[in-house]
């Protein structure tokens, strides 16, 4: 069984709508925990996830506080990786010991799902998979930083799987599942196989995400991204080689796209020279040559044409 799940609910029937959609998409293997009455009555959440074979991934954002109550759910041979991006996530072990994971932390928990709670406006991602895939250590839940290269690769790959799962054929689903397992091992164990070919799509996606946030940074380069992702520049370049273009070409294209948007923005205040500098081109001449090669016109001609078309409408 594989498929995607999506819910954005609030109001009187929010929880029943959410629970119905969850049961139909995720099945009893990944059953919802029972929630307290106050949680059900004030339920307001946004959720995006998927099931791929015997694994489940979900991105969950709650507007109100929530807390479970009652029986434990899930399976004894499950491992859960909770990745807390915002707010606070609390998990209670059998016996009453409580573990708190604030924003920026990864919590790894084995066995059935016991009581948990979340503060209002908490954003968490969770991956559930067979314990045999991760081989967790004995003892209670383990916690660590959520900003490691391994965790970033895991969440980048999961986002990509969620976007493409409904279009994948069986062989593609098997590959997506295998990579999720490999990345979960890396995230939970703190290690990463630098030459693992299955990681290439997720590594390329993580590099794209990082580059997109740093396009105006003069220090942005393939080597800098490799350092942040804790891989060698050669490994990162190999990941992009599978896509048919170098990482430096991707960065240049994204900077040109952002520069073009600023060129044609209504009531533009920046000059072409200022736009070139903002998007890290050496000078306006260098920018003009790169722009013309990509768009077929100089920045001046492109902006003038866009202005005429706007006036005509």
From TrEMBL:
Keywords: DNA-binding, Transcription, Transcription regulation. Residues 205-305 form the HTH araC/xylS-type domain. InterPro entries: Homeodomain-like_sf (IPR009057), HTH_AraC (IPR018060), HTH_AraC-typ_CS (IPR018062), PchR_regulatory_protein (IPR053142), Tscrpt_reg_AraC-type_HTH (IPR020449). SMART domains: HTH_ARAC. Pfam families: HTH_18. Gene3D superfamilies: Homeodomain-like (1.10.10.60). PANTHER family: REGULATORY PROTEIN PCHR. This is Helix-turn-helix domain-containing protein. It comes from Streptomyces silvae.
């Amino acid at each position: 069984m594989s498929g995607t799940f999506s819910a954005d609910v609030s109001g009187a029937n929010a929880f029943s709508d959410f629970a119905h959609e969850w049961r139909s998409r995720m099945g009893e293997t990944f059953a919802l925990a029972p929630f307290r009455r106050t949680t059900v009555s004030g339920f307001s959440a946004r959720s995006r996830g998927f099931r791929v074979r015997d694994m489940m991934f979900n991105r969950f954002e709650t507007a109100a506080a929530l807390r479970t109550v009652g029986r434990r759910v899930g399976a004894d041979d499950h491992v859960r990786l909770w990745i807390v991006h915002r707010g606070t996530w609390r998990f209670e072990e059998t016996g009453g010991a409580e573990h708190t994971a604030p924003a920026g932390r990864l919590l790894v928990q084995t066995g059935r799902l016991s009581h948990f709670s979340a503060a209002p406006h908490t954003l968490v991602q969770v991956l559930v998979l067979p314990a045999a895939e991760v081989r967790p250590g004995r003892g209670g839940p383990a916690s660590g930083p959520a900003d490691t290269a391994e965790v970033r690769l895991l969440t980048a790959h999961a986002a990509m799987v969620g976007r493409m799962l409904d279009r994948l054929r069986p062989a593609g689903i098997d590959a997506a599942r295998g990579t999720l397992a490999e990345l979960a091992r890396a995230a939970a164990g703190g290690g990463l196989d630098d030459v693992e070919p299955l990681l290439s799509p997720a590594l390329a996606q993580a590099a794209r995400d990082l580059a997109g946030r740093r396009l105006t940074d003069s220090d942005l380069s393939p080597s800098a991204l490799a350092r942040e992702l804790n891989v060698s520049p050669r490994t990162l370049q190999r990941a992009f080689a599978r896509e048919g273009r170098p990482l430096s070409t991707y960065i240049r294209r994204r900077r040109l796209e952002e520069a073009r948007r600023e060129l044609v923005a209504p009531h533009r205040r920046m000059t072409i020279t200022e736009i070139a500098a903002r998007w890290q081109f050496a000078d306006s001449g260098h920018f003009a040559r790169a722009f013309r090669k990509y768009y077929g016109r100089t920045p001046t001609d492109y902006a003038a044409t866009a202005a005429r078309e706007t006036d005509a409408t």
